[in-house]
Amino acid sequence: MVKVAVVEGDGIGQEVVPVAREILAAVRPDFEFFDVEVGYGRWERTGSACDDETMNDLRSADAILFGAVTTPPDPDYRSVLLQIRHDLDLYANVRPIRGDNVDVVIVRENTEGLYSGIEWTEPDRACTVRVVSRRGSERIARYACTLAKPRRHLTVGNKANVLKSDCLFVEICTAEAVRAGVPCTTRYIDALCLDLLMRPDRYDVIVTTNMFGDILSDAAAYLVGGLGMLPSANIGERHAFFEPVHGSAPDIAGQNVANPIAAIRSAAMLLSHFGDTASAAAVEEAVGRVIGAGIRTRDLGGAAGTREFGAAVLREVGRG
Ligand code: NAI
Ligand code: MG
Predict the structure, then answer these.
(1) Buried b / exposed e across 50-81, counting CB within 10 Å, b at 16+?
(2) Could you list the residue ranges forming a coiled coil in this record (predicted)?
(3) CATH no., domain 92-226
């Protein structure tokens, strides 16, 4: 039996995750769910955003369905999400971008790069170390090649013209692609950002380092109707974590206007992860039919609330 830890987190996480969870429970009544509280709200209430016991709860789950957490710009506050990704060693951040004329998967290295956490502040400068390791690059390259193999090709997003660390990244990724028999090209990340938006049909699987992948995937949301549409998976050897790409959106939280599609699609990725591609497809198709019927949240130009949209998807899933 699959045990799913559910973390709503902060802001709209508390609105979109219940919708996704209800749909997941409807298609897989055999899944077991348990709630785990982490985030800024918990920090304000208890002084701790996530402790060792919470980490053990997360570790005990087969999969984690996560909403979003608020990270205040407070130097003493450690990002819970970075902590979880690090502690569970969720090295591959997989972000599919699918819509009319676009079917791209961005595979972002999730444990090092510029988000290595190695940084310090001096009186007149602050430094962050960008770490690209052979082991980290090999495993993300392998993961990307496994995804690309049954598809078309791989693009390595990089800035090797400026960064020594990316020379290593490119060398390792292209070697893995050759080994896997995957056609591979390299592109500088700045040009890639623009080209992906202008000619998305040229791209298939894109592998890149941590911060470049973060920025590239938010920009790519433009192709499919915004941040409310994009799901993601964070995958490690032993743990799997599914979350919408968007954050806690404090500007719209508590108003029942958030788009739950990213969270629902993240639940569909969870289903695929456990081999249930039929249920995953049923959920995706139900979302498609609801959008097709003109039921949309405000960000997509509609008037449906988060809960109303979710209820419509639930009805469609039952019908499909
Ligand atoms: P954000 O993704 O929360 O919001 C950016 C913009 O997109 C906002 O205008 C928001 O209203 C809109 N938006 C996002 N998701 C939406 C949805 N489902 N439906 C409709 N509109 C949506 O990013 P922002 O504003 O940079 O960050 C807000 C907070 O979230 C910060 O504390 C940040 O640290 C945190 N954050 C957390 C993430 C996570 O938990 N994975 C990821 C990104 C940000
Ligand atoms: Mg981001």
Answers:
(1) beeebbebbeebbbbbbbbbbbeeeeeeeebb
(2) none
(3) 3.40.718.10
